[in-house]
Specification:
It contains 10 helices and 15 strands. The chain is α+β, with helices and mostly antiparallel strands. It has 3 domains: 100 residues, RNA-binding S4 domain (Structural Genomics Hypothetical 15.5 Kd Protein In mrcA-pckA Intergenic Region, Chain A), CATH 3.10.290.10; 103 residues, 2-Layer Sandwich (Pseudouridine synthase), CATH 3.30.2350.10; 154 residues, Pseudouridine synthase, CATH 3.30.2350. The chain is elongated and about 80 Å long.
Amino acid sequence: MQSVIIGKNQAGQRLDKFLHKYLQEAGTSFLYKMLRKKNITLNGKKAEGKEILSLGDEVKFFFSEETFFKFRGQEFAEQQYEASKHAASEQPARKPAAASSSPLRADGLAEYSLAYKKLSDIHVLYEDENIVALDKPVGVLTQKAAPGDLSLNEWLVGYLLTSKAITEEELRSFHPSVCNRLDRNTSGIVLCGKSLAGTQALSHAIKERTLRKFYRTICAGVLSESADLKGYLIKDNASNKVRIMPEVIWGQEKNGDFIHTKCRPIKSCRQEGGISFTLLEIELITGKTHQIRAHLAHIGHPLIGDNKYGSRKQNQLFMERFGLRNQLLHAYRVEFPKESGVLAPLRDRIITAPCPEFFTEIQKSLRL
């Protein structure tokens, strides 16, 4: 028999979801069968799987050691178990080590350590026991795009392990993670869940749009008045681009997502040769792929440096003059609402990430 005591990063979720994470190699039908037969119990009683776990609850597994390790997906533990069986005939019997004492696989931990050491210029803007706000530089992925990638997600776990904010054991059933995504070449604030409760609270706030997200960018042309932009975003997976339509014609465009973007001009300027630029603050009401970039291009004000939706000729000039190879877009500010519970420490708080140095240099050069 093995047992686990539910900690803060396991509490608040359904039992069946916890079991899927904890016994990662076990199928759904197997888990429900074990619940029905009372081979898995909650606080000593039969459970259905839909129960919400609380801090201090005890989940027991009436499996053999071999079966338990098999469904946990721990190759090293299986090897240890086999070795202990072999040694049992030569040495006095001894109690096997508790399942909770087995370390995580070394290759997984190495990935977190490597990301923490290799990804530079990531700064912690805010941290409490449930939430971490990070300032992501240009060029860093928020989440993996391919198996070999190192992203902000891996850096976050490496940072929390290094600072001892989370243990190897806790990583068995909960992984801290980012809660909002930025494009690789967009810099700025990324909100992360440090605990399960923090992840759930942030995800809910983002989904319900109770927190406000603001960006800074420089666009082509003069935008003299604030704009409240609405439309529908259509994805083209083949080209990895999107396009904007004022409305979706059902039957022809079935994959349209409603988008809402607010723009406030901060300062505009005109350069020699008649070209002009505007420094903008953008409030992202909805959050869809390439939304800001595509919406601004759609109204004739593409972002400077945006090679996907902007002017190649103009972007070439900025590359030659400033070495700019990416869009000027920075997640600048997040404003939190009046909140209770997990997000209470952030009630009415504003988190700001200063624009990168290359951004401010271009801004000053353009007299913005």
